[in-house]
């Protein structure tokens, strides 16, 4: 007989079927979770993307001129014909704001030269001016049309596979040593369902075109839901977390915020844009020059989506006006939907007082 020395390593006992099953179950759970996390993240991106605006609010309130726009005479050089008491633009934001089409400001205050806007803002800062308001919403609200069945396949597959592994471990752990009972119906069914559901779930997530249903024909709806009166451009930018740098004078401009409800079906992956302009509210009233604007829309990669979009509209110098909206698609653009506000009141006071002014309430 050969004696075993204390420092010699003894051969480890073979693992029991229960330990092996539990170890296999733990490894399977980690592997399945590792595969499910990226898929869940991709799925959650589609759901949470509804929080991103359909219309970029930075482009709604941008005062930058369109490419090729003529420079305002004297606005950027300090040779304006306005009174000498008005300031000339110094910062980059002020210089960009000054490069706009100069006009009388009848239709749009932001279309005036920088010095003209400063002069109007100074005249508007009086004690009896109408007050400004605040936005009660923090931005564009996306309406989720309900989760897709694709998101449920993978979790069901993982859950059933884990249940099958637990049933396997219990069957081997509770049986006497050397005797293996027959596989039960629960273990067989959960194994088959789990494997099938997991394969389908992973294929839906990672195989392009798998599980894609026929897209519905394009349909769009658009209507005006509400109007928030006397909101400054700065308040709008703050509420919607716009990072666009605006001159202080442009942040003080007052206007209305029109809330649009836009419903899209079958437009996933297509290019859309929103065009709007102000008109005289009288029957057959003309277009107010300088108020037309067109901005691109960000369409989610879903067949159906509904969004509430706030659009800031600066006041014209007219008693009553209305705003017409058009939903455009393709190139050349085609009108897909139209909406219009009712008659809206203009204002002679188109600027709020700046901070530190005695007339500021």
Q: What are its keywords?
A:
361 residues; alpha+beta; five-stranded antiparallel β-sheet; four-stranded antiparallel β-sheet; 8 helices
Q: Which runs of at least 5 residues are low in confidence (pLDDT < 50)?
A: 37-52, 66-87, 98-102
Average pLDDT across residues?
A: 74
DSSP summary: helix tally: 8
- Helix content range: 25-40%
* End-to-end Cα distance: 104 Å
What radius of gyration results from the CA coordinates?
32 Å
Largest sheet data: 5 strands, antiparallel
Structure classification = alpha+beta
Task: Give your account of this protein's structure.
The chain is an alpha+beta fold and 361 residues long. The protein is built from eight helices and nine strands. It has helices at residues 17-48, 57-60, 92-98, 114-124, 150-173, 185-206, 233-239, 248-251; strands at residues 141-143, 219-232, 254-265, 272-280, 293-297, 304-314, 320-329, 334-340, 344-345. Strands 4, 5, 7, 8 and 9 form a five-stranded antiparallel beta sheet that branches. It has a four-stranded antiparallel beta sheet with strand order 1-6-3-2. Strand 7 (320-329) and strand 8 form a beta hairpin. It starts with 16 loop residues before the first helix and ends in a 16-residue tail after the last strand.
């Amino acid at each position: 007989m050969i004696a075993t020395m204390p420092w010699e390593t003894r051969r480890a006992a073979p693992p029991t079927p229960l330990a092996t099953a539990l170890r296999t179950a733990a490894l399977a759970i980690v592997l399945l979770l590792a595969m499910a996390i990226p898929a869940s993240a991709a799925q959650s991106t589609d759901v949470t993307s509804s929080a991103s605006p359909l219309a970029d609010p930075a482009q709604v309130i941008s005062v930058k001129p369109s490419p090729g726009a003529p420079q305002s005479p004297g606005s950027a050089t300090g040779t304006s014909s306005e009174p000498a008491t008005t300031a000339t633009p110094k910062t980059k934001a002020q210089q960009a704001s000054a490069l706009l089409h100069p006009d009388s400001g009848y239709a749009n205050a932001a279309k005036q030269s920088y010095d003209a806007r400063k002069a109007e803002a100074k005249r508007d800062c009086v004690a009896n001016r109408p007050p400004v308001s605040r936005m009660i919403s923090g931005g564009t609200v996306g309406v989720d049309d309900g989760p897709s069945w694709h998101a449920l396949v993978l979790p069901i597959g993982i859950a059933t596979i884990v249940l099958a592994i637990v049933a396997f471990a219990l069957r081997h752990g509770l049986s006497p040593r050397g005797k293996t009972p027959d596989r039960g119906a629960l273990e067989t069914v959960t194994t088959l369902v789990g494997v099938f559901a997991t394969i389908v779930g992973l294929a839906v997530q990672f195989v392009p075109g798998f599980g894609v249903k026929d897209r519905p024909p394009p349909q769009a709806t658009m209507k005006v839901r509400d109007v928030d009166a006397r909101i400054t451009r700065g308040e709008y930018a703050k509420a919607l977390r716009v990072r666009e740098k605006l001159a202080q004078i442009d942040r003080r401009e007052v206007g209305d915020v029109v809330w649009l409800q836009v419903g899209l079906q079958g437009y996933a992956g297509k290019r859309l844009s929103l065009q709007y302009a102000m008109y005289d509210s009288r029957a057959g009233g003309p277009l107010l020059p300088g108020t037309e604007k067109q901005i691109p829309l960000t369409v989610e990669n879903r067949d159906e989506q509904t969004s509430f979009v706030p659009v800031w509209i600066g006041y014209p110098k007219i008693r009553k006006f209305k705003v017409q909206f058009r939903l455009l698609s393709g190139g050349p653009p085609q009108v897909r939907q139209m909406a219009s506000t009712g008659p809206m009141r203009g204002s002679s006071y188109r600027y709020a007082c700046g901070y530190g002014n005695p007339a500021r309430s």
